[in-house]
Amino acid sequence: MSLYEMTLTEAEGLLRDKKASSRELTEAVLDRIAAVDGKVGAYITVDNEGALAAADAADARLAKGEGGPLTGLPVGLKDLLCTKGVKTTCASKMLEHFVPTYDATVVTKLKAAGAVFPGKLNMDEFAMGSTTEHSALQTTRNPWDLTRFPGGSSGGSAAAVAADLCLASLGSDTGGSIRQPASHCGIVGMKPTYGRVSRYGLVAFASSLDQIGPMTKSVEDCALMMEAISGHDPKDSTSVPKEVPAYRSLMKEDEGKGLSGMTVGIPAEYWQAEGVDPEVMASVTEAKALLESLGARCVPVSLPHTEYAVAAYYVIAPSEASSNLARYDGVRYGISEREGEGLLALYKQTRSEGFGEEVKRRIIIGTYALSSGYYDAYYKKASQVRTLILDDFTKAFQSCDFIISPAAPSPAGKIGEEGDDPLKMYLSDIFTLSANLAGIPGMSVPCGFTGEGLPVGLQLLGRHFDEATLLKVAWHFERAANLTQARPRL
Questions:
Q1: 348 annotated active-site
Q2: Three-state secondary-structure class, residue 79
Q3: 3-state secondary structure at position 301
Q4: Which ranges carry the Amidase domain (predicted)?
Q5: Rounded to an integer, what distance in angstroms lies between the CA atom of residue 104 and that of residue 81?
């Protein structure tokens, strides 16, 4: 096995036992990026110099017997996480040359843990999209089939992990942007509970929905990353002061019992949804049977307001986006088109040139929904539906420990096939966005492949701040399914 193919857990053991150095590991990853990323297009920025300097520092710590489980391990970052001295573009012309003066809290935490950052990863512009085709800077391709998209908006983060261009990565999830690309790329992805991980330094899309989470090659790696990035942050007013569980040890407790005594919720609204690819449903049905063989008991649950989730989300998210993106006016930072006369011309030209079509579309939708005379009819009504969706989950979890569904209704599609049909893209989030509206944790774990060899993901949803249960279930499922050895060939 090559160094770049390793999981975080495997590489941690290698470095701890002094069978390899962080510099050797980092050089292997950087060489892999140089050799393969021309095909995949996962990285917007590769920081060779910074990564090697961090690797040398990590080796010095390890030589002294210092450092933790992430020390010296290469982790990619979605390019909406602020990194001091390194470009943060949000895959937009608006911020193409923006260099932050500070680090996001998750970056600070990973630096403190000794992680190495090879670079910044491609995404849909300002995280608005489900394919990563809406990046203004480049196209990212799915490592399993280079004619297909990797999902989005964290498509670069998912593709980089699947293609062994980093050992793990961070993405962000506003309506499924970690779980859906994780499903399409055959990796593990977790959206934590809203408030579990600090959003400070995350360039905001929709502030009440955004959440940062790990994208990894294994469930144990996901637990390791969760331990590193979780925790209260006074810089984020929505960060919740809860103790961070020891996820890696908790998921292995009572290992011999499997999932005995646990109850799985099967919502009819997800399992009988129209338009789900038959091969996706077949893989998820097999996954359900495997969970039962591990001792879990399946029970029916109801999420009756699911039919309104897409409509509510696509009022709330664009409304918050239109407010958040108002700051990009050509005055303070980002591009500034100053050819016209007057302030209004500056605003108009800068925003017309700086934003892509999908971002403009959502700004217009959001501005309309918040405008005088329409606020009560749209934003207020959507917020009320959001409360009903939260109540649905609260009631469902009274009779089950976790809920399962497909992570995405279909496998990864061909690049360009969605064309000018934004509705098709919006509906691809049908299984994921309710978790963001409710603020609950969710994750995708590989559960099979289609006849064309495309990955399929099983989504697990849990109670607020109960990521430990999801990781335990996913860990047992992963071991039984034995799919982690399958890798794309590039």
A1: no
A2: coil
A3: strand
A4: 24-471
A5: 6
